[in-house]
Amino acid sequence: MGRRVLWVLLLSGFAFGQRTPVILVDGYHLLCQSDNLSSQHDFGDLEARLRAEGVQTYFFGTCSLAGKPKIEELGNALGAKIRSLAVPQVDLISHSMGGLIVRSYLSGKQSSGRVFNPPVDPEVRKWVSIATPNFGALLPSQIAQFLPDAQARELVPGNSFLFDLATWNQNRDDLRGIDAIGIIGNAGGFGPLEGSNDGTVAVTSASMSFVLPDERTRVLPYCHGAGDLTAILGLGCDAPPLARIQSDNPLSWQIIDSFLADTDNWKSIGHSPSQDPYLSKFGGVLRQSRDQFDKPTSSISDDPFVVNPPMRGGYMVVIQKPGPQMLITIPSAAILRSLSLAPHMLVSVYGDSLAGSMLTLNGQVLPLNYIDDHQINTLFPESLSSGLAQLNVTSGQGSQTINVMVEPAVPAVFTMDGSGTGIAAATHEGSYLSIYLTGLGVSENLPSVYLDATSLPVTYHGPAPPFAGLDLINVLLPSADAKGNLTVIVGREQSNTVSVP
């Protein structure tokens, strides 16, 4: 067995029948006591149940680090924990503030200002987010200065840490293509507010709809947890805790077990935000106003329950500014699971008031292959290092700068109708198929191409001259009339799925 085949098997978690290791990440503790140093306090029987299935588990306890460090520092410590295991990938299960630790790790958020150093490869396969206060807990901002530590202050809605996490990549969050779901509770609240929270976190804040499709948030009739913060806030929640797995909350375990085992059973447990009495009507908004040169002109405002919001079912960040504004930057071929881009990639910038603009990346002027008021097509340079780069748009009306994440390769396959879905932009010649894409970048990894579950031999991969940024992969099909769904994988990045008719 060749090294590459063995590595792919290890990444899939199937080599020698082994499951991907799991790290449990717990939440905030007002007082760190001895029982907070094991997973049972927050997660109950979860670790024991996973181990009974042959899953190697580890516990990342926030109380194991002295001095109540900031969430950013806990994120860095989680990264060190992941790397210390020396395995290709891990699965993460977080509770409460633990979810912010995971998001801080994925973004590489540092404790000083808007500084990010995201890992090029997070080494995470799946993440189960349980009751994460993505946009804060039910803590009024008026008491922020009286809270006992930095961790608690970073849980107050509308603070700069939460805003930075939600806007670190292209003014939005990005889970880096990791397969993720959220489990949230709605058993808290009194009277007209019944069902609006889990006793500690509003359903709009816990929902993962700000970064994941609707079905990937599962709402259960449970409470936040068994921690001291929940005991203090209370808010009328006396149902079983979401993450503390025991006999009276079987639904949480069923979702976790199904999701980690790659079955679809979790999709029918609980309900999605679009089916929830509150989330189907309300959404949260995190808002900031800026001038034409992208400088803030107001403080961050937070509203967890907005009628007729920009997006129902969760939160949305709204940055209001005059002049040119980039809303999303993606491969010209397709929208992918992550927001990552690659060197020498054909890229499309979508936004407002873009006509007449100049586009630069890390100060280098980019070619404008097409431009109008709402779209710019460009080509990223070949000499582009992995990590965050600064994309700037400037015109006579103002300017804006955003972070974009660059990885060695991010394959995106063109389709015949230009939508990124449907029939691949490809040509047949007997049993050979030529696939047109962008984003092969500068990776030294050989692309892996799959037709459904069948790996296809690659006979060529590289540029498709004379079109700069256009790539080509030639593969050998099982037969001249082979059909199915095709994907391309390079390193950790997977392309959009297209069809070969």
Q: How would you characterize the overall build of this protein?
A:
By secondary structure, the protein is α+β, with helices and mostly antiparallel strands. The chain is built from 10 helices and 27 strands. The strands form 6 sheets. A 6-stranded parallel beta sheet has the order 2-1-3-4-5-6, sandwiched between helices. Strands 18, 19, 20, 23 and 24 form a 5-stranded antiparallel beta sheet that branches. Strands 21, 22, 25, 26 and 27 form a 5-stranded antiparallel beta sheet that branches. α4 crosses α5 (97-107). The longest helix is centred in the N-terminal third of the chain and has 14 residues, at 71-84. It starts with a helix and ends with a strand. The model is unreliable at 1-16 (pLDDT under 50).
Tell me the structural class: alpha+beta
In terms of per-residue confidence, which ranges show pLDDT below 50 for 5 or more consecutive residues?
Answer: 1-16
| Number of helices in the DSSP assignment | 10
- Strand runs, count: 27
Distance between the termini: 33 Å
How would a textbook summarize the main sheet?
6 strands, parallel
Q: What is the radius of gyration computed over CA atoms, rounded to a whole number of angstroms?
A: 23 Å
- What is the residue-averaged pLDDT? 93
Strand order of the largest sheet: 2-1-3-4-5-6
Indicate the percent of residues in helices. Answer: 10-25%
* Proportion in β-strands: 25-35%
Shape: globular
